[in-house]
Amino acid sequence: MSLLKRSPTRRLTGSSFELTSDHRWRHGLLVVLAVLVVSVLAGAGWRYFEQRLAPLARLAQLEAENVRLRAEADAARIELEMERATRAELKRQVGELNEQVSQLTHQLEFFNSQAKSPR
Predict the structure, then answer these.
(1) 41-61: average pLDDT
(2) Helix (H, G, I), strand (E, B), or coil: what is residue 19?
(3) 1 band by pLDDT with thresholds 50, 70 and 90
(4) Is 33 exposed, middle or buried (0-12, 13-18, 19+ CB in 10 A)?
(5) pTM, entire model
């Protein structure tokens, strides 16, 4: 019976070697796993730098908006000063014109009184 039974050595030497798909699956699985790990690390790195750089970008945006608002405020302040100066000048001119109206009214009254009086 032992002659009919094949020994492990005979089985190894007697059988032909074949490439099995186990290695291909293992290799494919390793490639997929490596891509997955790289993707996860890239995503984590992206999120980390986004969280670190987002406040800096927001700060730059706020500083630019601050500069724009200061320029608008300065322009509005200059416009207000010009409006106040114009208003003061107009008040002065109105006062002068009222004074002239008053003088002309007195002169007109004088001329009217001279025209009514008998000579």
Answers:
(1) 87
(2) coil
(3) very low
(4) exposed
(5) 0.46
